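Fold Annotation — chain and its backbone
Next Lines — sequence and tokenised fold

***
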Amino acid sequence: MNPDERTFRQHIARGRFLLGVDCGDWRLVYDGWPNPIIAVSAATRDVAPAEFAFHFDLTDYPASGPTSEPWDIGTDAPLAHELWPTGTGRVEAVFNPGWKPNADAHALYQPMDRLAVAGHTDWPAQDPASIWDPARMDIVDYLKVIHDLLHSPQFSGIRRTP
């Protein structure tokens, strides 16, 4: 096991991660390295599942921050864009599959995501607390952002009814 994987496994064995599991905030679906899948609960909405799964890329974790995209557990493939979470304000911005056209990876558009932060030189000055910092953050911080958005009043469901 390499040091990056060892660090991740230590982080998911800690109380912060386990408390989220016990509270039903998230669950580890697949622990394969470096691409675990973690499902995060969502607030009850007429047009939304009870949770959304996220496929992570934790290459060079924790020195480099995580990146993730919504995932279809049933097909083991990226979630169809019309099934991504949606809403208004920050929810709409973060869960925007089209923010990086013609990209192979569809990361969440938020400062903690390593793919999204690349090229946004203004983000560290605008919101320094949201930029990935391995000295004070771990996977739980990233999961909390997702969880908070999926439980916010701005979250309305999915982009299109299946």
